[in-house]
Predict the 3D structure of the following.
Amino acid sequence: MRLKQIKLAGFKSFVDATKIPFLNPLTAIIGPNGCGKSNVIDAVRWVLGESSAKHLRGDSMADVIFNGSSARKPVSVAGVELVFDNALGRIGGQYANYGEISVKRQVSRDGEALYFLNGQKCRRKDITDIFMGTGLGPRSYAIIGQGTISRLIECKPQELRVFIEEAAGISRYKERRKDTENRIRHTRENLERLGDIRSELGKQLDKLTIQAQAAKRYREYKQSERRLHAELLVMRFLELNEQAEAQNSEIERLETELAQQQAQKQELELSLTQQKLAQDELSEKEQRQVADFYHNNTEIARIEQQLKYLKERDKQQASELGALQQQIAILNEQLAQAKQQEQTLDDSLQQHLPRQEELEEQQFELSQQYEAALSQSESLAGELQQAATAVRDIKHQQELAATREQHLKQQHAQRTEQLEKLSARLPQPEADNRANPAELQQQVSLCESQLAAAKADVERHGAELTKAQEAWEQARQAEQQLVQRRSGLTGRLELISQWLEGAAQATQATQTALTQLWQDIQVEAGWEQVVEAWLGPLMRAAVYPDSKPFDGQGFAQTYRQSWGPVSAGVNLSPWLNRVRWAQSAQQASNMLEQGLAEGELILCRDGNLFAHDVKLTLAEDGQSLVKLTAEQSDIQAELDKLASESRQAQQQTTAAQDRFNELRRAQQLKSEALQQQQLALTRAVMAYEAATEQAAREFKQRQQTEAEIAELKERLEQEQFELETLIESQFAADDTLYERQRQERLLSERHNEANQQKNSLKVSLSELERQLKTLNGTVVEQKTALALASQRRKQLTEQLQQAEYKRSELLDKPQQDADSAELQPLEQRLEGLLAQQHGMQAELEHTRAKLAERQQQLDSTALKQKQQLGQLEHLTQTISTLKLRREGLKGQADSQLAQLSEQQIKLHEVAANLPDEAKIAPWQDQLESVRRKISRLGAINLAAIEEYEQQKERKAYLDAQDEDLNKALASLEEAIRKIDKETRSRFKSTFEQVNAGLGELFPKVFGGGSAYLALTDDDLLDTGVTIMARPPGKKNSTIHLLSGGEKALTALSLVFAIFRLNPAPFCMLDEVDAPLDDANVDRFCRLLQEMSDSVQFIYISHNKLTMEMADQLIGVTMHEPGVSRIVAVDIEEAVAMADAG
């Protein structure tokens, strides 16, 4: 693999599109200073992914874009493309089969940066991944710029390690390890978030479990309520049906009883009628008997009157005869008039009878015609009604069809509008300005990195805060220890002072203000007990100073003397001059063996006394005053020291506390910032999840909307077909309606004509009937008048005959004979009538008795009839009431049936499943109990069951995710271990090979000397690499003591040693021979010539020797200020021209 060509456009000074071909292994780029030679190397470094403007000799990335010159305007875009020859397949992966690989980078002034790989857009990471492990990169050992050759030697151990890693090809492993660590960190963060979510979800599940259980109980209660309600409705319906059937049976029974009562009523009415007829007969008989009785009475009275009259008539007979003559004359005149009137009426009647017969015949004919017209009219009316019904049916069908058509049109319009709305609801990608999930994911990654940095910062400050707190606690504890120490020492000092004051007060010396020996004597530490035991009572003896006269017992103050460990300002020689001092019993034994002078003795530090043939243990006399005095002095000195230390400790505690408070405030600020970062991350994650869910919802909604649109379109087509069919049927119905209306008009006209004929006949018949009725009335009146006239004539004739008879009687007999002849029969008749009257009275009484009996029977029958009527009325009212009740029960049953139908309760199924012990009251109680249970449940979240199942599934999914993440974490950790193992192995092998190559090349370059690489640590994963070089004849202790040329050659030796091990596709050198002299340049050139067999070198140089070595020269000029151009130089042609010249 080698670099085949570089294409530049707008990059730094290369404003115009420029192609730089590299055809040979050794290519030299030459040109004057400032013409843009180094820009070529910058371009290569930039394309390979350099992201720091500083390493491109700029302040910002926009500096790589041509910024204009005196003659040129700035450009807005800079682009560089590298073309590689990959015939050997050095670049593996998916590009291994490509013979040529193009890598391009482009940037604009608005900050848009684009990468292209073989013309396809890609990421910067894709570019760096391709060249990872090949030795190429923006800062790899294959590209050495100006001044960097010496810095390569002086770089830090970790920086030098990077070159070894790149040569070992483990940079990709390192990147993978970094990615794996990031994944591990993200996985752990996800596990933490997942744990939080699972914990929160667990809490929600606990709540939802309660709600779901309540919802399930509610559903069970509700199902029981519906079942009980349905069974209650069915039982009520069945009970109402049973009650209605019972009412029907009762009504049938009462109607049968009513029929019986009505039959009895009819019998009673018949009997009552018969009794009334019998009573009427008896009443008539009674009336006749009464009439006969009264007539007999009248006759008796008449006869009595007649007898009386006959007696008086003789007186009146003469006058009566004259009156009879006058009466006969009048009667004859009236009789003649009556005969004349009767004849007149008879003639008139004879005239009206033929007219009556004629009118009756006309009436019969008109009646026949009227009945025929009426039958025809009724027939036509029926046909007309049928036609009108047909027309109404057709119109009704048309109205229904019109309504259906209007409904279809409205439904069609609604569905069309709904289709438009659904089409408008389809999300338009070009109009979607919401955040992209990929961008949100990048934002989440950015927030995660910021959160990680904030966490690291918080952890660092937390560590500092912990240290500060520990320092504060330590300072406070030290201060408290000092305080406790001071308190203990102060207490001890007070106790010792009290003891010493008590000892001083016990002597007379204290009363005379004199010191005692124990107050003046000084004994080395450890000897107090034995000295005080040896001196005994002398310790309490008074010491007189020089200012006071010595006039008592005690010691006089003198100069200070010493006796071994004892010193005092008094004379203790008598007691201590012959005393020898031993630190231990062994030393005392040794001293005894050496011999003692006469009177000498040995006091041992442990309290024993030794002499010739003497060994005693001196008894202690209570507390040692000397020791207490020394202890008092020591305590006082220590208290003074502790006071100073306490002040210092207090200052340190205050400082530590202030530091702790300051760090705690800083930690709080950092924690708040961390919380803000966590909140931002949470918001970003929520936004990402919301965007992802929104995208999924929109996709699902889009699918649903498209399905709804397809369904709507299908329905629209069906409705359109139905509408067209309906319109066609409307046309056919219009034709049928027109035909029916025509037939209806014809029938209507015929019916009107028949009605007119019928009405005309009816009018004629009415007029004829009126005439006939008038004529009949006239005939009846005339017949009546004729009968009256005939009767009047007969009466007048009888009256005339009677009058003539009376006149003749009056004229034939004398009055007395007549009276005597008339009186005798009258008296006889009177007697007979009286006897007849007695018989008639007996018969009348008998008849009245029978009539009373009949009246009683009639009253009894009437009472029975009245009672029967009451029973009938009661039965009728009862039947009516029962019918009303039955109708009410039927209405209630229909209402129950309607409720059953509305609630979609299957009557027969529920009735078939009803228990035998089912009763309305217990079922009502159970229903009320269930409803009370439902009400006690309170507010019910019916969605809790489904939500519980969803959250349960989500919890199971999250648990599986947690398990998967833990497995992934374990696999990632295992991958890191494998990467670390491989990295150690490769690094160790590469380090040893590069070190060996450096040891081989360095003497060749320098003509002697030695150089080697060394590791700074034992851990091969993190150890740094240092280089040590000693040119011939030098024993320098560090690399920094080398000259610039020596550093350059050492760096080249290292680079070439790396190239020998892992040659990069090409090597670019920018004036690395500048610090070398001619001899070293010659060595450098020979080394380049040797390495060019396996490595393509592109170098910039001003040295003639280096230029001469090149296979290809590329000149860079700047004819136009600020604009670089390429000038190709053909070396063979130049040599030929030189040879020809």
Observations:
- The domain at 1-142+1069-1140 is CATH 3.40.50.300 (Rossmann fold).
- Confidence is low (pLDDT under 50) at residues 429-433.
- The chain is about 70% helix and 10% strand.
- The radius of gyration is 77 Å.
